[in-house]
Amino acid sequence: MAIETFAPNLVTAVPARYRSRTVKDGLTDRAWIKDIRGSLTDIMVVEYLEVWRKVRQVTLTEGVQDIFRWRWEADGVYSSASAYKACFLGSTLFPGAKIIWRAKAPPKAKFFAWLAALDRCWTGERRHRQGWPAQITQQ
To answer: Which segments constitute the Reverse transcriptase zinc-binding domain (predicted)?
Structure first.
């Protein structure tokens, strides 16, 4: 797992030239601590402790190569098709989407129908909350 996924703020405190270090390089003489520059915010300290907890669990074995596995495929081999499918993991399907977007209507009407189906229409009340004029002039 890339450090940017669970410690994005802490990564910004490390100069770019050190960000490509391996775990082995980072553990040597505690270089991963020395690479951090500037003062840390509270969030960065929490992320630092998370990194420390994860790095502490690492056991390096001399002469053993790292194994790279693509976690989205059972065989661990990367493919662009599996990367494309991974982009949509966790997304939800909206049953009326095909009906709305395939309708023979102007794009403006389709977009309005889409917003209405998602309950995201800007009603007068919502426009007022946003500081916009609630009245819409009719032509």
So the answer is: 78-135
